[in-house]
Amino acid sequence: MGTDVATVRFLDESGRLREGQEAPDPTALLDGYRQLALARRLNEQAGALVRQGRLAVYPSSRGQEACQVACASVLGDGDWLFPTYRDTAAIVARGVDPVEVLSMLRGDWHCGYDPAAHRVAPQATPLATQLLHAVGVAHAARLKGEGTVVMALCGDGATSEGDFHEACNFAAVFAAPVVFFVQNNKYAISVPLARQSVAPSLAAKAVGYGMPGVRVDGNDLAALTSVLGDAVARARAGEGPTLVEADTYRMEAHTNADDATRYRADAEVREWAGRDPIVRLRAHLGAAGVLTEDVEREVAAAAEEMAAHVRAGMGAEAPADPEELFAHVYATPTPQLVVQRAALRAELEEA
Ligand SMILES: Cc1ncc(C[n+]2csc(CCOP(=O)(O)OP(=O)(O)O)c2C)c(N)n1
Ligand SMILES: [Mg+2]
């Protein structure tokens, strides 16, 4: 039913350039490859930290690393990124220290980094709420005549939320400089895409809002960088929002608290393992002669250095002050909170 949009793809699953496709700049792609390797190592390291009890939870973006790297790399310093809980690697690709980013998933009450300094909003857990905030920031920037573009991330499941609809509609009507980037990883925890939407594609939903919708191979860094780069340029030129859907896959369970074998077949996971974004780019860059063994060694060393930094940062005990429970809620604490705080203090002093 209805008309679908074609999927943009530059590299096929074995890394060959598609016929008639102009070759992307290998130097930029090589830098992207470095970032992909770091993102994969971060996913692995964070998973290990969960098993060691150093992180409370980690929603892995394994398999989605090309999306993570591309959405950060197309932004300028003055632009904004609005991530979800699954987008830790995108925030790190934007240049934020992974130790800071992971502190929320360790259980801290704050997001771990300074959102204004990095122009990265806190990772949103309530689905799609960040899209409205992103549109607000984009609209304000436009009214102020700033050249800011906002990259708003969400998952396939989040597109069923009312907030998604409101954000898309408002952004299109007011030509807000925002890019809606949906990582369609085929599941919302255990709910498969077929139970989420029967639209021809998620990108096709853009038609109803009067904005362009583009579907892109989410495991092809070259195609993603091009499509997202064009959407950012369009927003910056005052032409309004774009909805970009990445066709990708969540290779791991929703989080460490989920058992994905209960709702999806191994064969499906294996099929997607054959479309790995890193393997594909490695094959392409190897054939182009730019990914030498020396470069591979250098990339692996940088990934190990980052992982060691993360282990050191997460291994150190987080400073914990129980009285923080009472801070940052009311400018003037309520009488009940004053009593409770005093009771806690007295109990801690006794202990
Ligand atoms: C408003 C809201 N409803 C429900 C949840 C519970 N929840 C957390 S993650 C999730 C699935 C989201 O799926 P998707 O948007 O596809 O993102 P993904 O986890 O696949 O990256 C749900 C239902 C929530 N966090 N917020
Ligand atoms: Mg999903």
Structural account:
This protein is of the alpha/beta class and 351 residues long. It has two domains: 7-320, Thiamin diphosphate (ThDP)-binding fold, Pyr/PP domains (Rossmann fold, 3-Layer(aba) Sandwich), CATH 3.40.50; 322-351, no CATH class. 44% of the residues lie in helices and 9% in strands. The chain has 13 helices and eight strands. The strands form two sheets. A six-stranded parallel β-sheet has the order 1-7-8-4-3-2, with helices on both faces. It has a two-stranded antiparallel sheet with strand order 5-6. Helix 1 crosses helix 2 (65-73), helix 2 packs parallel to helix 9 and helix 6 (129-143) runs parallel beside helix 7. The chain is globular. The mean pLDDT is 95. It binds thiamine diphosphate and magnesium ion (MG).
